Automatic annotation (TrEMBL):
One of its GO terms (molecular function) is ubiquitin binding. This is WD40 repeat domain-containing protein. GO terms for biological process: proteasome-mediated ubiquitin-dependent protein catabolic process; ubiquitin recycling. The lineage of its organism: Bacteria, Pseudomonadati, Bacteroidota, Cytophagia, Cytophagales. Pfam families: WD40. It comes from Lacihabitans soyangensis. WD repeats lie at residues 175-207, 218-259, 265-299. The keyword Repeat applies. GO terms for cellular component: cytoplasm. Keywords: Repeat, WD repeat.
Length: 299
């Protein structure tokens, strides 16, 4: 595979760190949010449109484009539901004074993780929480859902990954191996493998078919790994880090293929917090503490 790394666009306008990205309501748009509480819809670099302003920082969002629904996690103020067609808030679901680190969807359920180690299950038909349970006594930092296995993996700040079934949310596996908080999880390889990234700067791969046995451990970055995505069409993994870099890996053998950083590519000058792959356009987006979002051509 030939790579041709090129920065295509830089999106500016946020007043503080950008923490999260998600798919937009069309193939050519996306949403961003962060420490300034602004939720911005982007179509082009010079066409950012704020669609919501919340009172606190936003670490997580989830867009349901077929339903015109955008869920926003407003730290200490619960979940906000935005009608993306009308561009207005239609619901606020309180969740106590907690910071929300991740949101994932499973069928008609939203799974929400928070800084005190709890998991919250919300029924999107009724827009009510139907279950709350404690996973650990430290932060539940990240979530990954495998519909194939009907399982959910949760990364915690007690250095462990816990795997639950998605029927009764019963604990099935406790995975140990990292030496610090687990910040990102991603199923890949037909959902049989789980890759984890940690504040210990290592990538670890676990085989779900073998009770999540560890099959790889890689010193991947210089500082904490903030996010991992799987680019399925090209069988690649992409990681981003507090060390300011983005790295592209072969998903089959975990060989490092490319490094995107400031010296090579005029990339971000501070921590890179989140990645988003734009499948139709074949672009990679990266969000950073430097208040910007970059769009990358990889090939």
């Amino acid at each position: 595979m030939d790579f041709n790394i090129e920065k295509v666009e830089t999106f500016t306008g946020h007043k503080d760190c950008v923490y999260t990205l998600c798919e937009g309501s069309s193939d050519k748009s996306f949403y961003s949010a962060g420490a300034d509480g602004l939720v911005v819809e982007w179509a082009k670099a010079d066409l950012g449109r704020p669609i919501a302003k919340v009172s606190n920082s936003v670490y997580a969002m989830l867009n349901l484009p077929n339903e015109n629904k955008l869920w926003i996690a407003n730290n200490t103020e619960g979940l906000h539901l935005i009608d993306t067609k009308k561009k207005e808030e239609v619901l606020n679901v309180p969740l106590g004074k907690v910071s929300i680190f991740d949101i994932k969807q499973h069928g008609n359920l939203l799974i929400v993780s928070d800084h005190i180690g709890f998991l919250h299950i919300l029924d999107t038909d009724s827009n009510r929480f139907v279950r709350h349970f404690e996973g650990a006594q430290k932060s539940a930092r990240c979530l990954a859902v495998s519909t194939k296995r009907n399982e959910m993996a949760v990364g915690f700040s007690d250095w462990k990954i816990r795997v639950y079934d998605l029927e009764k949310f019963e604990l099935k596996h406790v995975i140990e191996g990292h030496q610090n908080s687990v910040f990102s999880l991603q199923y890949f390889g037909d959902n049989d493998l789980l890759v984890s990234g940690s504040r210990d700067a290592h990538l670890m791969v676990w085989d779900s078919e073998k009770n999540y046995q560890n099959v790889a451990r890689i010193p991947a970055h210089n500082f904490a790994i903030n996010h991992i995505i799987y680019i399925q069409k090209h069988e690649l993994l992409a990681t981003c880090s507090m060390d300011k870099s983005i790295k592209i890996w072969d998903a089959e053998n975990l060989e490092l293929k490319k490094v995107i950083d400031k010296s090579r590519n005029a990339s971000h000058g501070t921590s890179v917090n989140k990645l988003l792959w734009r499948e139709k356009e074949q672009f990679l987006l990266s969000a950073s503490d430097d208040r910007t979002i970059s769009m990358w051509n990889l090939f």
